[in-house]
Write a structure and sequence with these properties.
The complex is a heterodimer of chains A (183) and B (309). Chain A is built from two helices and nine strands. Chain A has 183 residues and is of the alpha+beta class. Chain A has one domain: Lipocalin. The radius of gyration of chain A is 19 Å and the shape is elongated. Chain A starts with a helix and ends with a strand. In chain B, β8 and β9 form a beta hairpin. Chain B has one domain: monomeric porin ompg (Porin). In chain B, strands 1-2-3-4-5-6-7-8-9-10-11-12 form a twelve-stranded antiparallel beta barrel. Chain B has 309 residues and is mainly beta. Chain B has three helices and twelve strands, in the order αβββββββββαββαβ. Classes of the chains: A alpha+beta (183), B mainly beta (309). At the A-B interface, α1, β1, β2, β3 and α2 of A face α1 of B.
Chain lengths: 183, 309
């Protein structure tokens, strides 16, 4: 009988630990920017979602492609229709881990690296992205900047507009996390 | 006891793995997309008729539409280089997005039908937008124009282009474009239309209803097949009167290829209608596909984003 108690206690403990260690953010800000000879392209969204498990150091992001807003509506239409094909591939998703051994429960600012798989346009690629995690008073902020090569995700740029669209796009993200509410 | 240990071994890592791997699950299933369906059509015109699309705010659309002469029949053939020596109608237009839902425009068309030298003002309003979750299953856009001919009046009162007063030169069209995008490859539009012409010939109709259907079939991200057809409800008496005098009226049918390159949209099309304006091609088309009386035509749309920075 003792063993059954231990068993139940262990299960219960592991579940509650998982719940407490998860931080989430439902308004991840993402911006991407590309500079080509003829045109700069910029788009923003704040509709990304993200979660971090501070114990397992897993990190997760997801953003709806159609939520990106461009200054030029026609550009936004082309982005969705011709390049990202958001009807077929409505989300970009990242699943990874925070590397290193920084203690993500103590206040402080940590320069970290994450490694994981980023899926855009239905094509997955492994990325290693440097970022900053700031923890202060129960609030965790993550900032990161990285480059995405459009060809890596099979996003085709016709030669006609090659001077309008850059091959590499710079992505900037900011997210503020609070302890996830258990469902 | 053995099977309990086994359970522990099996369950514990499983519950921990859940916490690690399935972080996305805390956000629930993919929320149903409430956002509007965009790009049902690539341009504000299908071929002859309107699509449900309007221009984005502060976008300027410069449009040129051209219809050549008959490819075959008595007016076509090699002597006119299959119609390319002639142009039945040319329309040059500037259209502008006042808001994302309201477009206004002005145009000049050569005109083909009862009148020529046409000046048009138009308005287009996106009343409803189809949504991804099908809460709104179709998009509805209203279109209206007023057209005035600046041609010289005939001295003969019997002529249809005898203008007693200014209003004789005017005509109007009102339409509702009901459109739906099925998946990302097929779009259809149904366009109930009303055409009013202040001055028409004897036994012709001042007021005429018509029903248009149009569609777009996408081959690739940039190339699509487009077609539209307008059925004009001309009454039998009017048809018989004109048929007895050697004039038959036909419904307009256009088929074409749509090519999109950045800010340009090209339509390369064939149509029996000689005119570009709704005011003329709906009630006044007298050429038919059957007699080689169809023509090569093109629509060019160049959009400029005047907003931005």
């Amino acid at each position: 009988m003792k063993r059954i108690f231990i068993f139940i206690a262990l299960i219960g403990l592991s579940a509650s630990v998982a719940g407490q260690d998860v931080l989430s953010c439902r308004s991840v800000s993402l911006r991407f920017f590309s500079s080509a000879p003829l045109e700069d392209i910029e788009a923003k969204t704040s509709q990304g979602v993200s979660a971090i498990n501070t114990a397992s150091r897993a990190i997760y992001f997801k953003v709806p492609i159609t939520s990106f807003r461009f200054k030029k509506k026609l550009m936004q239409e082309h982005f969705n229709e011709n390049y990202l094909e958001s009807d077929k591939y409505p989300y970009a998703e990242f699943k990874g881990n925070i590397l290193g051994d920084s203690d993500l429960t103590k206040d402080g600012t940590y320069a970290v690296e994450t490694e994981g798989v980023l899926q855009i346009h239905g094509v997955s690629k492994t990325y290693r992205v440097p970022g900053t995690i700031t923890i202060s008073g129960g609030k965790t902020t993550v900032e990161a900047k990285f480059n995405v090569r459009v060809a890596d995700h099979k996003i085709k740029i016709p030669s006609l507009v090659v001077r309008n669209i850059a091959e590499v796009v710079e992505v900037t993200m900011t997210a503020e996390y609070l302890p996830a509410v258990k469902k | 006891m053995l099977h309990l240990r086994l359970l522990t071994v099996l369950l514990l890592p499983a519950s921990m793995a859940m916490a690690q791997e399935d972080l996305g699950a805390i956000f629930g299933k993919d929320s149903v997309r409430r956002d509007p369906v965009t790009a049902t059509f690539k341009s504000t015109r299908i071929i002859n008729g309107q699509s449900n699309e309007t221009l984005a705010k502060r976008d300027l659309d410069f449009r040129v539409a051209h219809r050549f002469g008959d490819i075959g029949g008595s007016g076509g053939g090699s002597s006119t280089f299959f119609g390319l020596d002639n142009s039945t109608d040319i329309r040059i237009a500037f259209e502008y997005g006042i808001t994302d839902k309201l477009t206004a425009g002005v145009s000049r068309a050569k005109g083909s039908g009862n009148f020529s030298q046409m000046w048009e003002v138009l308005g287009k309003y996106k009343l409803l937008q189809q949504t991804h979750d099908n809460r709104i299953p179709v998009g509805v856009t209203l279109f209206a124009n007023a057209v005035v001919s600046s041609m010289k009046s005939s001295p003969d009162k019997e002529d249809v282009y005898y203008f007693d007063k200014f209003s004789d030169r005017a005509g109007y069209v009102a339409q509702a474009v009901i459109a739906r995008k099925f998946g990302n490859a097929v779009s259809l539009a149904l366009t109930p239309s009303f055409v009013h012409r202040n001055r028409v010939g004897y036994k012709d109709m001042n007021n005429m209803f018509a029903l248009g259907v149009g569609g777009r079939l996408r081959f690739s991200n940039r190339v699509a097949l487009v077609a539209d057809y307008f059925y004009a409800f001309r009454d039998e008496e009017s048809k018989d009167y004109y048929a007895a005098r050697g004039t038959d009226f036909y419904n307009s049918l256009g088929v074409g290829v749509e090519i999109e390159t950045g800010g340009h949209v090209f339509h390369l099309n064939f149509t029996n209608a000689t005119a570009v304006l709704e005011n003329q091609f709906i009630p006044e088309t007298t050429s038919t596909w059957r007699n080689g009386q169809f023509r090569w035509g093109f629509n060019i749309s160049r959009r400029f984003s005047l907003g931005g920075r």
